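Late entry, evening session. Most of the bench is empty. Finally got around to the prediction I had been postponing all week. Sequence below, unchanged from the version circulated by S.P.
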Amino acid sequence: MGYFLAHNSVDVFHHGELHEGQVVSTGQPNLEYFENLEDLKVRLSFFGVTFYENNYPNDLGNILEGDVS
């Protein structure tokens, strides 16, 4: 597993995990790859960007309760 950072060096910074075989495509002019989370955090701090850990639910069904119609 690794990490990526897609950015424009100014005000757009997208980051996330990469698993073996995954491919990242972006419209941002810069796409960087990191072997570990610490390196990603260091790079974000270089730009003055706060790292926020993404916690995505494993099952969207847990979000929707009851009738959504």
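Two things to note before I forget:
Confidence is low (pLDDT under 50) at residues 59-64.
Residues 2-57 form one domain.
Will write this up properly tomorrow.
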